Amino acid sequence: MHALEKILANASGQAVVEAGQTVSARVDLAEVNDLYLQVLISFREMGAEKVWDPSRVVFAMDHYAPAPTIKSAANQKVMREFCASHGIEHFFDINSGVCHQIMVEAGLVRPGMVIVETDSHTTTLGALGAFGTGCGATDMAGILATGEMWMRVPEVIRVTYEGSVPEGVMGKDLALYTLGQLGTEIAGYKAIEYSGEAVLNLPLADKMTLCNMAVEMGAKTSYIQPTPDVLEYVRARTGQEPRPVFTDPDFRYHEEHRMWIEGMEPQVACPSRVDNVYGVTQVEGERVDQAVIGTCAGGRLEDLEVAARILAGKRVNKNCRLIVVPASTEILRRAIDLGYVQSLIDAGAVLASPGCGPCLGAHQGVLAAGERCISASSRNFPGRMGSNQAEIFIASPATVAASAIEGRVADPRKNL
Description:
Helix content is 31%, strand content 19%.
């Protein structure tokens, strides 16, 4: 079996499972974000009276942090009251950050776990060897009541990267390149495993970004075999000995794809599809009015570091706005201590509170009709970040920082 199949076998109390089989799996951790008040409405409508295990439930106020509307404030109020009445202690309020990041920092994520969240980018957690997947409100209500969820065991696609990662190329570039090569429909209800020395040697931040973007190919979940540095990180965060699950050496993948990345340049997804991908030199010079570094796909410490390095001693172009959204308050604190925030502010960046912010077009940098944005976030379809007449380019934090200086799509390698 594949590691992901072994995780589902253990969660469903079976010795063996295989792709296509439907199982009822025990959920190790369930997370609800502040977009999904419907979870609590459905929970009550199905007659549930208590959460199956409050210690395995997480609520995160991250999409509207802080609340920009009366409705979002009211939703958060109901969620706070729900958590208090059900004894849910893992409640991350508006001062915390993006759910995927803060759960990892809090030591709640370990290899081999089944983790379900009301957010499609839960695939991020495959970077730590967990089975992370998203679900809708009704499914989550059922999980809160029973601790279980049915799912079909996904087929596994392996993507192997060959060659070394070039200078100026980040995990986001690998993700975009893969999307450009394979498209957005290749992995519908399938799993993607990322492999190869290039991936295994990436820092955890880049692995999380790579797994984060798996859902943009339709993936149910993603997976990278945990390496010693990742296991040490988990050990330090959880205080427990991590137990990674390994794939049988004779496992046969549903599909295999190899990507030669030696000499690859930074990548840019152009409006308005994440698989409309070009090398940066092919789109260099395209005007941008706003640049965003942050959220769950590009707001980690390493992302802020490379942006600060590129922007140090320079200024954001007078015709462009740069918004920086750290993925968590812990990252913000460390970025302040290391001087990254000072460099970014000195360059003219606007610092937003940790969370999802402008990624979903809710607040902290909504786009007007006719504007163009280059963002380190995850999606660029029309209306994603504001007006459906705005255009969005998706790129790495390095490319976004370089573009903020130029006011146009720019190659970050010239600034490194």
